[in-house]
From TrEMBL:
The keyword Transmembrane applies. Converts heme B (protoheme IX) to heme O by substitution of the vinyl group on carbon 2 of heme B porphyrin ring with a hydroxyethyl farnesyl side group. GO terms for molecular function: protoheme IX farnesyltransferase activity. This is Protoheme IX farnesyltransferase. It comes from the Bacteria. CDD domains: PT_UbiA_Cox10. It is a multi-pass membrane protein. HAMAP family: CyoE_CtaB (MF_00154). Carbon 2 of the heme B porphyrin ring is defined according to the Fischer nomenclature. Its main location: membrane. It comes from Commensalibacter papalotli.
Amino acid sequence: MGQSLSDEVVGSKRVRFDPAMVGSDVKDWVALLKPRVISLVVFTGVVGIVLAPGHINPIIALISILCICMASGGAGAINMWYDRDIDLIMQRTITRPLPAGRVKSDDALIYGIGVSVLSVILMFLATNFLTAAILAFSIFFYSVVYTMWLKRSTPQNIVIGGAAGAFPPLIGWTSVTGSLDIFPIILFSITFFWTPPHFWSLALYACKDYGRAGIPMLPVVKGARYTRWQILIYTIILAIVTLLPVYLGYTSYIYMGTAILLNAGFIYMAVRVLSEQQTADGLSLNNDKAARYSFRFSLIYLFFLFFSLIIDHFV
């Protein structure tokens, strides 16, 4: 006789599992690591390694990159474990492995913790204590401070929680030098101030989803109009912060020109988001089309901004 179906309570709902199918697809275990998030996180860590003064053995550099990848993925899996109740409610997350019943929650938690711990141990053995400590803190910050505390308790969750995704340049830098400097802190700040306009653009067109799940995202609590203004304000602050490497003499004309063009584009996107036609209750008349474009542009923005730092470094 075949194995019978089993149930698991997720939040207030019951998810049905087929024991013969649970955990059988490698794609589900990869999906738990949030690979799309990892790619940009790892890239900013690589930039930290490249820009750091001194020399690092290529093998050690690859191990450092792997550890950043593992840490981000492990924290992502813990995030999915904790958020499985709201993922079951939100349309854009309902097909994830946990709410879809393809991976059991206990297995996902063990998986996330295991990958996270292994990344810190490996980083310590390959590089130095400071790098491993920052890596461990970044995992803790995303998994506990943001996921378990800020996300469900304050509309400023993304502002404070943005620090979680800003650590990789610091980690990459210290894996080479074993110490911190002003430049990697600026790189941290760029990612930190990039996160609110990036994520609030997503939150605008996913507002109903967040509302159903009871997540106090800014447009849910303060309204769309207020959020649009905050996107513009943080984009302007970001533009100022991105020019600090030029002002302090860390970069030259290649980065400066790229930063000016990208910032002009991002501010234009933010203005479009602000001026998007709305109904009386603040909802978009055009399905938040400008916010969707702004979200996509923000990904291109961060990639090319950091890529220009590498080009500027070698020219």
